[in-house]
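tool=predict chain=A
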Amino acid sequence: MKEVCEFLKKCGAYYLATVEGDQPRVRPFGTANIFEDKLYIQTGKVKPVAAQLAGKKVELCAFDGQQWLRVAATAVEDPRIEAQEAMLEAYPDLRSMYAPGDGNTVVFYLQDAEATFSSFTAPPRTVKF
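tool=predict ok
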């Protein structure tokens, strides 16, 4: 999990895929943080993506120029202020838009995650957390 988080942070942006009805939705994301041994992401509760994430299967993909990472998981909302605070401590620039307990900040952890590192020069390697 730590390796996955570090890879996502190194890339800066990754692409998160959800489904809305029968329509796939993909958008850039930039948060990844480990809190209480779980990998978390963050968004605003008012955004459509928040409803698309809650308790649903998601997939994200990142590329660092040499290898790419795909993570398939279920997104689980964590409503605790402590989880929100940990994310905003890791990403202080977000404090201009979000605050713990503001009713808009929402964090999700990735449950039953399967992460696959791939490249053109090595066989794929999968980790689960």
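The two ends are 6 Å apart (CA to CA). The beta strands are 14-20, 23-29, 33-35, 38-44, 57-63, 67-78, 105-119, 125-128.
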